[in-house]
Design goal:
Blueprint lengths: L2 E12 L2 E12 L3 E5 L6 H9 L6 E6 L2 E2 H9 L2 E4 L11 H9 L8 H8 L14 H13 L5 E5 L7 H16 L3 E6 L2 H7 L2 E6 L2 E7 H6 L4 E6 L5 H5 L6 E5 L2 E5 L2 H8 L10 E7 L3 H9 L5
Helix pairs in contact: 4-5, 5-6
């Protein structure tokens, strides 16, 4: 299996506070990998370390086979970076910004063709201050593509955009994926992750608390039975039922990952559960949203 990004035991401590805590992850060539999590989870700090922007970390990072601490200059020729926050002088025109970025590389892509393919060529002579929010994000993608990267890093790409502009940017990312570019992105929009990502991880308080492919998450749909009991039921009692894949417990609520129809039939037959009083039972649809709120501890309001 070909991994183009490998991170092992990454930690970042700032002013005695651990911002990133023993993070390990890997990204396959050609996939879109998303890092989700609430504000302050460590998403941006993690991706900045992988990009080579940050060097105050412990752990090992390899990107396209390069050791970041030894080969950062070589790596920057092969990756494209869209920063969470970037601004330019108001009076600079789009073409002037593109020319400036092109001057940083020996063999830059033709920015006119990028402007055309991403739908911004009609704004080539427009001042930066006159661009809409969506147009500024499109420009940030174009600038990240100028080095003709093998990997594209996106940090909160669609934050602050209206729904129409957000969808336009998503379609651009999917087009880039079809061209074979590996994409790593951070986002707090769950719909964005579902639309774009092949695989996601969820971060909370500096740690990765969940990693899964989107196809597996979608296959979990309608595969949970949630029941409540005032009695403490050992997980082993549920795991003894053949259709049960996994059990999670939060206070007096038990979430059983299973085939609900099979489980409910078997559940009535298991005498070991007969001594426990079940106060409520229902079938629940597993979604990225429900997983996210479970893993981060945030409330779905």
């Amino acid at each position: 299996m070909s991994y183009v990004i490998e991170v092992k035991n990454l930690s970042v401590t700032i002013k005695s506070t651990k911002i990133v805590d023993d993070v390990s992850l890997s990204v396959k060539k050609g996939e879109v990998f998303g890092i989700l999590g609430p504000n302050g989870a460590g998403k941006t700090t993690t991706i900045e370390c992988i990009e080579g922007i940050r060097t105050n970390y412990t752990g090992d990072i390899s990107v396209l086979g390069f050791n970041l601490l030894k080969n950062r200059t070589d790596l920057l020729k092969k990756i494209g970076i869209q920063l969470q926050e970037a601004s330019y002088p108001d009076r600079l025109k789009v073409k002037e910004i593109c020319k400036l970025y092109s001057s940083f590389y020996e063999n830059p892509k033709d920015f006119h063709s990028l402007l055309e393919s991403i739908g911004l060529h009609h704004r080539v002579n427009t001042h930066y201050s006159k661009l809409s929010g969506g147009e500024k994000q499109k420009l940030s993608i174009i600038l990240a593509l100028i080095p003709d990267p093998e990997i594209l890093f996106l940090d909160e790409l669609t934050a602050g955009l209206d729904p129409r502009s957000r969808r336009e940017v998503w379609d651009i990312i999917l087009k880039l994926k079809k061209e074979g570019i590996t994409i790593m992105t951070t986002t707090h929009f769950l719909e964005e992750a579902e639309y774009l990502c092949d695989r996601i991880c969820i971060m909370n308080q500096g740690k990765i608390v969940y990693t899964e492919t989107m196809s597996n998450i979608q296959s979990l749909s309608s595969k949970q039975v949630v029941l409540s009991s005032k009695d403490e039921i050992p997980q082993e009692a549920f795991m003894a039922i053949p259709s049960v894949e996994k059990v999670s417990v939060e206070e007096d609520v038990y979430t059983i990952f299973c085939q609900p129809d099979i489980f409910l039939k078997e559940f009535n037959k298991i005498s070991s559960l007969g001594k426990y009083v079940i106060t409520n039972i229902n079938v629940k649809q597993a979604t990225l949203e429900s997983i996210y709120f479970e893993k981060t501890g945030e409330k779905n309001e």
